[in-house]
Amino acid sequence: MDASTPPKLVGPHFQHRIIMTWRNNTFLFILGLTVALAVASLQSSPGYMDSGYYYATGLQLVEGKGFTEPFLWNYLDDPDGIPHPSHTYWLPLSSILSALSMLVVGQKTYTAARLIFILFAAFVPIVTAHLAMDISKRRDLAMISGLLSIFSVYYAPFMPVTDNYAPFMLLGGMIFILANKTQWWVYLILGFLAGLMNLARTDGILWLGLLGILILWRLNDADQKKINKLKSLIIPGALVIGGYMLVMAPWFIRNINIFDSPMAPGGGHILWLTNYNDTFAYPADQVNLQSWLDAGWQSALKARLWAFSITLGNSLGVQGGILVFPFILIGFWGIRHDIRARLALVGWLILITVMTFIFPFAGARGGFFHAGTAFQPFWWAIAPLGLERVIKGIRSRKLLDDRAYKIFQGALVGISIGLTGLIIWLRILQPGWQPESQLYTKVEEFLVKQGASQNEIAVVRNPPGYYIVSGRPTIVIPPGGPSTILELAERYDASYLILEPGGVLEIYQELYDLYEEFPNFEYLGEVDDARIYALHPSE
Hints:
Blueprint: H1 14-17, H2 22-40, H3 49-62, E1 68-69, E2 71-72, E3 84-85, H4 93-105, H5 110-136, H6 139-150, H7 165-178, H8 184-200, H9 205-221, H10 229-259, H11 289-295, H12 297-319, H13 325-334, H14 339-358, H15 360-371, H16 376-395, H17 404-429, H18 435-449, E4 457-460, H19 463-470, E5 474-476, H20 482-492, E6 494-499, H21 509-513, E7 521-527, E8 530-535
Parallel strand pairs: 2-5, 4-5, 4-6
Antiparallel strand pairs: 1-3, 6-8, 7-8
């Protein structure tokens, strides 16, 4: 029997043998929860801007301030000031989840905000194992898949943070489970899940398109003599769109009320970036088609080749878990005719195309890493099938005995555990997860001693991160240089600038080194090599 072919099961134990038992589910949940909690114990703060943004805007919701943000982390929609409508670039699902978690716990701490994400991380291996069971009808292989999702190598440090990783994995895994079913209500649920994915990320709209492709495939595969083509297209399509709009319609209405458009205006300039720092450019209207054309086709080609190398590396190392990648390919080949395999391949190819050629800077700087999580449960589900086929091929040459299956399965999981530990060491333990948070705390203490009032605005590298530790309104440092800082200070009434060590753009290096030559920047002092200035734009 081919390793990718479900075994023929008969007799009274049929049902028992092809489902995950409560013991299997409980084991995966507890182990997944333990690993997520262990990682979370090493992270006392969000650690990077995305996670900090979702936590900070979740706080706004809990405090009854609605979808607003007390900082500006980009100028893409030409903001009038602070407070500013939130989620004009990123979407709100993780902020909503953070707020719900804090409301349930009754605290406004980062620990409280992340509890729901830790819980989601514990459910990912259960969903992954159920998907694997549905594909292989092999409980042992399903358990291996579940374990691979727990020890997820590069994704492990991010599973318990206030970001889209764990929710996106859950939603993607559920879509793949349901994609093999044809009951009418399934399409409604699939649309609802696609809506949640779009509420999490802009690229989540891809999944609505993939569901449309799924419906067309089913129509093409069906017995043409026994179906009404129009009915079989319209009803599932309407149910999918209906489920999608149950989630997204309120958000579209909010955007129309604020921006006169169902889509927030923050992402319009992203098409014309010539480098990643253009994301923070001020004014944003300088990032346009003409500036992109002026940069030349060589610049555009170089950026896309660079983005392709990054996304290819992510595909092999991150999504493929380094050594797991070959088994994913082999497992995929074994089930290539499964509609879910086709869906995964088409979706992944569309995603890598968009993230490489349309949005190369956003894609290479985290977009593909984030969005690819939705496919992870499927990759983990088919990897043990690939290993099984390899072992079977070797055994056919009588080079291995019956113990080979267990030995190599254990080795695959063991290697994933080791690599996961290594990545946690390199990403969390060795550099430390919260050095920026500690720095911002010290800087804020310095500003207070200097007499800074709570409402005075500071210009910083990571506005959500600074706001979280201080409560101070903040705006992001643009790439334009000191003169642009003064323009911002004039427009937004900013009072202070903080230049961090290791985070100074080249255009600010002279200000950092020779501050006495910039009379509009009053040097106040230094905290752990971060230099702090009072801004005097009108002098």
